[in-house]
Amino acid sequence: MVPIDAVFALGIALFVLGLFGVLFRKNLVVMLMSLELVLNGLNVILAGLGFHLRSPRGSIFAIFVILMAVAEAAVGFALILSYFRQKKTYDIDKLNELKG
Amino acid sequence: MTFAIFLLFALMAVFSAVMVITRTNAMHSVLYLAFTVLSVAGVFFTLQAEYLGAVQILVYGGGIVVLYIFVIIIVNLDEVVAERRKLVPKIFIFAWPSLLALQVGTVVFLNRPAARPGPEGGLEFRALAEMLFTSYALPFEIAAVLLLAVLIGAVFVARRRLSRGPD
Amino acid sequence: MMSPWLADGLIPLAKILAVILYPMLMVIVMIWLERRVVAWIQGRVGPNRVGYQGILQPFADAVKLFFKEDIVQRRADRFLFNISPVLVMFSTLLAFCFLPLGESFRIGDYTLNLWVARSPVGLLLVLGLSSISVFGVIFGGWASNSKYPLLGALRSVVQVLSYEIPVGLTVLTVVFLARSMDLVRIVERQQESGVWYGFLLPVSFLVFWISAIAETNRAPFDLPEAESELVAGYHTEYSGMKFAFFYMAEYAHMVLASSLVVILFFGGWLPPFPGLKAFAFLGAIPGFIWYLVKIMFFLYLYVWIRATFPRYRFDSLIRLVWKWLIPLSLVNFLVVVGLRYLL
User: Fold this and answer.
1) Lower Cβ count inside 10 Å, N or C end of chain B?
2) For residue B7, what is the domain's CATH number?
């Protein structure tokens, strides 16, 4: 059987790696991909808890998280496409029109 | 034995995740994202969340990653964005997630649920379906409406403006 | 009695080897079958020199492809270019792990299962893995750094993704009747109800079959790789063994789709009329023989359809799925559910 410690470690590792990706990278699309890593880490922890507590709620919660990820990715892409058509770049350093 | 397979998939997932965030070529990052998604699906299988694993492969792998690939092709991400930062922000950016991980890890490992021998027989698929459609029927329906809204919204935001309309 | 080394080590290894060899054997048969049958339908003979009636032609092709020069364009993305054939083959072969080939045998006190893995969501997994196969296609098209492959890859991916929807909806009617997504259980349920689901759900079967042909990029839906349209689509720039991988993966995908049709709609390893006593003598022939016969029939159908119908234009293809097949499968699902509760 899989010990819960290992599952937590994997989940936190994926979460933190995704966080690094969002903070370090300047390429907009890669930032969104790192967000997906964060959500995957979350799902791993949820599935592990569902397994450990012998409840299907973990899987159900994780399914909803996947649905949210789909929705967020779709909207994110629509915005990226519009942004790219306007500014012809996806470097977040240049996307700073709201900066005071 | 299951733990060994879990470790295999876990190492693959972490390795692919590191590759996702470090590659300069966006297409390579997407490939490693696909590997991460498949490895995490494998992790779900070792945790006996088989339906979740199947949904992960279908939705994440067959849907979201393909979406990413399409976006990169349409936007034509050949240009490599120079990743330049000054030193002090770099230190903060590196320190904060690490400290967060340490803190969360400590709290979790000190308060983790007691290690029980683990379930026998695995998760009943029927129990999952029953719970999904009885206790969680409302979130389920709301999720369906949300996806519909996202579909319409994404198509609207990303459409080409062929004529000068009101916006 | 059976030592754990054998039961847990050797037999699964042998099964994994079988999972790799079985599609490859079918591919070899398919190559010969396709070229001869298409030739006969077109009024010519086809390759018949390389062995008795051209049986050794696939081996000749394999040797030729093996010795061809492996060309990689200078500006192609080497890593993705090299890994794409592997990705396509990997996803297709992985899906074969979940397909049951027949009933379980009893050898002494050990039950030999004719499948590598059995999962309560086996059907969903097979569908998911066959949708993973678009990765290899699109990475191959992009990495070739050339217009025709990219266009072919994009068209192929759009086609596969669109036709997955009617596949999912028609499969849903089968799952509804069988009360399970486990492929083994679906065949067992067909045995219990005494009739193949293809006779109970003819519309589902037709829509699924048409979508399966489109999913595998076969004629008449093969615009993404048609010779006269796009040079050769996403595998234009590939030569030698890598092209052979794409070629074999396409045939393996056809075998996968045929297997799925047989398991879901035609009783898997059951003989015809599994419920009637009058036909019980057909049960003397082992299950996997019936299974192979049925798969060969559907593979022959693939080739027959290819030689008969003209190719769909791409926008007609997409219009067909979104305007006709998806509404049809939705209505079909409602009708099946309604009939089930009325009867």
Assistant:
1) C
2) 1.20.120.1200
